[in-house]
Amino acid sequence: MSIIDIAIFVLYLIGIVLFGSSFYKRNKTSSEFTLGNKALPTWVITMSIFATFVSSISYLALPGQAYLSNWNAFVFSLSLPIASIIAVKFFVPLYRSVNSPSAYTYLDKRFGPWAKTYASVMYLLTQLMRAGTILFLLALPLYALLGWDMVTIIVITGVSVMIYSLLGGIQAVVWTDAIQAIILIVGAIVCVVVLLFSMPEGPGQIFQIALEENKFSLGSFHFDLTTSTFWVVLIYGLFINLQNFGIDQNYIQRYMIAKSDKDAKKSALWGGLIYVPVSAIFMFIGTALYSYYKVQPGLLPQGVDGDSVFPYFIVNQLPVGLTGLLIASIFAAGMSTVSTSINSSATVILTNFFKLDSNSSKACRKSMNILYVSSFIFSILSIFIAIAMINVKSALDAWWKLASIFSGGMLGLFLLGYLAPKVKNTAAIIGVIVGVMVIGWMSLSPILFTEGKLAKYASPFHEYLIIVFGTITIFIVGFFIGCIINFLYKKSKQKL
């Protein structure tokens, strides 16, 4: 990278930290820290919800997948309009009526403290590993581009995000999310324009090559549950996005900071819908890169493939200045994700594990101290996790397998509580246990049962269906156990 590109990136990092930290004086109470006094503009919340969808993984992985194969991954985005509409109709009114900054207060009211604690702990573990993973992945391109020490990059990035998240609260997180989302979109559009006008025979050559090699295919339309067909990815996307809109603290907290129910619904709808065209841009970048290097194979060294093609193009084919902008946009996506995880996790810790009923100044100070300490500890732990991944990279895939176990149980429990009002605690506990066992089998059996007699017991289904089968199992088992318990209870009352 040139000095100009490095300067652009460093100035961006410093600017975003200073801007986020400037909200410090607006956070005198825990309510201001977690809900921002419900005075944030609707468009800012909308862009923040969009930024929550996007991470540096998406920024690199979507172009990488389109480059290697086709647009099958884009089918995930096609499920978003359905999930957004469901959120507007059901989830937003539900959480606005509960009127708590925590997503899991509803589960407490529905099933009791165990459900709230279970969901909160699983959420915190998932977010902690997610933040650590993003910090690790953010360090990779800078390490490759500049040769800086990985640990140093992780620490600087992690501390930078921690400072403005801790000092600025939800207002800093949402505003910086909005700014970073705009930078991300501008960076992607600039990249598309450069690719279109860098083809030897003009922009049409991209489409000609891509169409000839079926690069715009959305995948097979056969109903096969063992591969990532169109239907498997669509169903997977629907369940994942129902989880995002229905049980993820990152999203629910944004419903709550809106000025009114109408503004919250508008933000939820458009925050999800914006991701559809933006993800299409990411996919098109991958397809365009395939055509670009197909006609100019000498520009791409051997060994550069998949996710590494886009970063290579950014550094070697973009004009000076634009490289710095694109690297900043990749960091923008990652920093948004990490800052959101920090603030939402601190909110969950305060709301679900501490009871401070008094409105006294002493209780207010204690609440703020809990939020600050929680944010600090969460940030430090995520930095250590990112550093640990430098040498234990194989742990990445294993963790996401375990994360699916935790998150799948959360979604199933929520849907059971929301859609089956007569189901009580015992049935819900049994449903969660059976569902998590199914999710565990689907996640781990392909890894553990690879040889001998046990191989036939390995799950034959595609890993995208883990959350689908797990969630459905929790709901069906919980529902029927609840019906049986209610039936036996009525029978016993009749005998008496």
Can you give a write-up of this model?
The chain has 496 residues and is an all-alpha fold. It has 20 helices and no strands. It is globular and about 85 Å long. It starts with a helix and ends with a helix.
What's the short story on this structure?
With about 500 residues, the chain is mainly α. Helix content is about 75%, strand content about 0%.
Write the layout of secondary structure elements.
Blueprint: H1 3-21, H2 30-35, H3 42-53, H4 56-68, H5 75-78, H6 80-98, H7 105-111, H8 113-146, H9 150-196, H10 204-212, H11 230-247, H12 249-257, H13 261-273, H14 275-295, H15 309-316, H16 322-353, H17 361-388, H18 395-419, H19 425-448, H20 466-495
Helix pairs in contact: 1-9, 1-16, 3-9, 3-12, 3-13, 3-16, 4-14, 4-16, 6-11, 6-13, 7-8, 8-9, 8-16, 8-17, 8-18, 9-14, 9-16, 9-17, 10-14, 11-12, 11-18, 12-13, 15-16, 16-17, 18-19, 18-20, 19-20
Low-confidence stretches: none
Helix content: over 70%
In sequence order, what are the helices and strands, one letter per element?
HHHHHHHHHHHHHHHHHHHH
> Taking Cα atoms only, what radius of gyration do you get, to the nearest Å?
23 Å
Mean pLDDT: 84
Q: Report strand %.
A: under 5%
**Shape summary:** globular
The number of helices is 20
Number of β-strand runs: 0
Largest sheet: none
The first-to-last residue Cα distance is: 82 Å
| Category from helices, strands and their pairing | mainly alpha
